[in-house]
Write a structure and sequence with these properties.
single chain
Amino acid sequence: MKRLSGVFLVVFLLAGCSPEIGSEAWCNDLKEKPKGDWTANEAADFAKHCVFK
């Protein structure tokens, strides 16, 4: 049970490390990511928040 709780804690902490959508850090991360790996939602959010500010 302790091991399972530890795994959930690590996953929760790592999920909190991604930058907020639309932030400058998020835009920079997507610029470095190959465009073929973007999802449709990422492409739409990128256009909305990073291109058409």
